[in-house]
Specification:
The protein is α+β, with helices and mostly antiparallel strands and 157 residues long. The protein has a single domain, classed as Pnp Oxidase, Chain A. 21% of the residues lie in helices and 36% in strands. Strands 1, 2, 3, 4, 5, 6, 7 and 8 form an 8-stranded antiparallel β-sheet that branches. The protein is globular, with a radius of gyration of 17 Å.
Amino acid sequence: MPGYGVQNPDEGTGLLPWSWAEERLRSSHDYWLASTWPDGRPHVMPVWGLWIDGALWFCSSLGSRKARNLLRDGRCVVATDDPLEPVVVDGVATQVTEPAALAAMLDAMNAKYETTYGLAFLDPAVNATFRIQPQWAVGLIERDFTGSPTRWRIDTR
């Protein structure tokens, strides 16, 4: 990475395994979601989320700016909440409405956040549930900034 003084892959910590990134994606309490307004301006908001089967899931009111942005253009970026060992995911959000998928997501959300929401919480008439399929991701360890940066391309075929 010219200009950053990043070392070769055989120096420093070296390239990080995808399992390292997935652990941080699973354990992050909050995630920073970036979407775009209709005029192209960036919009960033924190969300609760879940890393399930290689994708990030979250829900939001249909009237929220982030939901309206993603329903118009699903391209987005999500970052974990730890600035010392961040993982940043670039992907595409799609709305999920299948009852079985919503029930599974709700079970995982109740377990992670120690909540007791019922299925009505994810009612597609009121709230949008999104699944963000990553296209690529970046992660690094701050204490080894020049030796650890790693970028992953995610095959979505």
